[in-house]
Design goal:
Length: 510
């Protein structure tokens, strides 16, 4: 009955969203549009035995929403762990554990988040999810995008190894396709385990709809052959709203803010729905045009308001694509340039932005954010980023041309690597930590604000937040194609309070 597990998300001090999907009959498979309507009961308790139920209710679902259920469990206490479950008749789901956010303005000594992105089902197993689930110490999991991928079996595979082929066996373009693909991902046992263990806070990047999406289209969408982009995006958004534990419904905004007492606010961005089409390349005058945007006007005003001094100490930003500027050096070989270009999905022209899909391709919007942080003297801002299939720790320079001689850093950016999606060593078909080392060194030399770069590893990150600093630990898998893969701590970086700079650190707990 509950083949796709249960999940929770978007914790508030007094409520949390609960999710599940039921299969009331054999034909009621994801995307089928078949099966009867049913009533699903839910309950929330303060103990795993459910001897002290504090909230309960029921919800109806049916084929019109693919038999998914989303409810808000309210009247909860802040900063408190809870257990929840669903039932239909005698069928009872597994029990998930969630946690509400601390009370507004309350002192908080410590927060701990799992941080993940780029989870391609075909490229490997979700061992990173298993390792995070087994920790038992997470307040929430931040998923920064590419929760699933749109491609048909065998596509988007650098090493030509399909570990687990996609279902359906075509590229997702219709509502039924997106529902089936969400359903496939939600059967993964490690993903189910992590959803059981902690609430998720999610945003989308591009592959939830199509590669390099923008407001009016996508690189991986052919108008006509694949229908209207507006219809495809509507289908992707509807399936996302149905299948993800998020306070989002089609037609409303996905960008939103969550606060965790006096310690941290978290602004989750949507950098696909409102953005202008990507520039042609790094020397396209459109890169600098103030008429182009990556956020859209309303989201930009909202973000700047969240970054203004006041409120919680740390201003965390869930950022689907990199905001720190990155320049490609001229010392790379043709093979290395081609590999980096394929990984980054951008153009490679020495001395100018080369990934026009990230903030590098939208200079006016990035400058507005940087100027706001600099001119307002705003401290303790950290961008948490996915997308780029590599691990980075960066300063965000007020002026890249004068950094670090006279320029300062207005914020830091910490980028998690991919869970499974191809990295540079996969693209170059080279052993990990061999060919990529020279590329990493050249990019760091050309970009002194880049303090850490790992182009090869797959894994996950853990973020610790305290009044003294924000620390990210990067954990790497031994082998993404082995479900029981071990994980090891690769490195740690800290952003000290008031500094805006990422520096090496010790720490990390397996």
């Amino acid at each position: 009955m509950f083949a796709h597990g249960v999940a929770s998300g978007d914790p508030y001090p007094d409520s949390v969203l609960l999710w599940t999907r039921v299969t009331p009959s054999a034909e009621a498979t994801p995307g089928s549009g078949l099966g009867p309507a049913v009533t699903v009961n839910w309950e929330v308790a303060t103990d795993p035995a459910f001897s002290r139920v504090v909230s309960k209710g029921s919800a109806k679902t049916g084929p019109e929403r693919d038999h998914t259920v989303k409810v808000i469990a309210g009247r909860l206490e802040p900063g408190t762990p809870y257990w929840y479950r669903f039932s239909v008749g005698r069928a009872v789901s597994g029990a998930g554990r969630t946690r509400t956010a601390p009370a507004t303005g309350a002192p908080v000594d410590h927060l701990r988040f799992g941080v993940v992105s780029c989870t391609n089902y075909q490229a490997g197993y979700f061992s990173s999810y298993r390792h995070l689930a087994e920790r038992g110490d997470l307040d929430a999991v931040l998923h920064l995008g590419d929760y699933l991928y749109e491609y048909a079996p065998g596509e988007y595979q650098a090493r030509d190894v399909v570990v687990r082929p996609h279902d359906p066996t075509v590229e997702m373009t219709t509502l039924a396709h997106y529902r089936r693909r969400h359903g496939q991902y939600k059967t993964d046992p490690d993903l189910q385990a992590l959803h059981l263990a902690a609430p998720f806070i999610v945003t989308w990047d591009d592959h939830e709809a199509a590669n390099d999406a923008w407001s009016g289209g996508a690189e991986n969408h052919t108008e006509g052959a694949e229908g209207l982009w507006s219809e495809r995006r509507a289908a992707a958004n509807q399936a996302y709203a149905e299948w993800m534990p998020v306070r989002y419904e089609p037609g409303g905004p996905l960008f939103r803010r969550l606060d965790f007492g006096a310690l941290a606010s978290l602004s989750m961005l949507d950098l696909r729905s409102y953005r202008s089409q990507q520039a042609a390349n790094g020397v396209d005058p459109a890169v600098d045009s103030p008429e182009r945007t990556i956020t859209g006007a309303a989201q930009m005003d909202w973000l700047l308001g969240n970054l203004t001094s006041g409120g919680p100490q740390w201003k965390l930003v869930g950022n689907p694509v990199m905001i720190a500027p990155v320049r490609i050096p001229s010392t790379l070989s043709l093979a290395e340039v081609a590999g980096v270009q394929k990984l980054m999905g951008g153009t490679t022209i020495d001395g100018v932005p080369y990934n026009v899909d990230q903030w590098d391709g939208y200079e006016a919007d990035r400058s507005r954010v940087v100027r706001h942080l600099r001119d307002q003297g705003i401290k303790d801002t950290v961008f948490l980023t996915g997308d780029i299939h590599s691990g980075w720790a960066c300063d965000l320079p007020a002026d890249p041309l004068t950094y670090p001689t006279t320029g300062d850093s207005v914020a830091a950016e910490l980028v998690c690597t991919s869970v499974t999606s191809d990295n540079l060593d996969d693209i170059l078909n080279a052993p990990p930590r061999t060919s990529s080392l020279a590329v990493e060194a050249a990019i760091r030399t050309a970009n002194p604000h880049v303090k850490y770069l790992d182009f090869d590893s797959h894994g996950y990150s853990v973020l610790d937040v305290t009044p003294a600093g924000v620390r990210m630990d990067w954990y790497v898998l031994a082998d993404r194609t082995v479900q029981a893969s071990a994980a090891t701590l690769a490195t740690s970086f800290t952003v000290g309070a008031g500094t805006g700079k990422a520096v090496p650190a010790t720490g990390g707990v397996l």
